[in-house]
Amino acid sequence: MNKLSTCLISGLMALSSQYANAITINFDYTFDSGFFSGANLSRRTVLNAAGALFENRLTDQLTAISSTGGNHFNANFNSPSDGVFQTINDFNVAADSLVVFVGARNFGGNILGQGGNGGFTASGTSQAFRDNLNTRGQAASDFGPWGGAMAFNSTSSWYFDSDVNTVESFNGQNDFYSVAIHELGHVLGYGSAHASHWAEGTMSSFNGVPQEAAMDPTLTIGSRKYFTDLDFQGLRDIGWQVSAVPVPAAVYLLASAMLSLIGFRRKD
Ligand SMILES: [Zn+2]
Question: Is 137 within 8 Å of 63 (Cβ atoms)?
Answer without folding.
Answer: yes
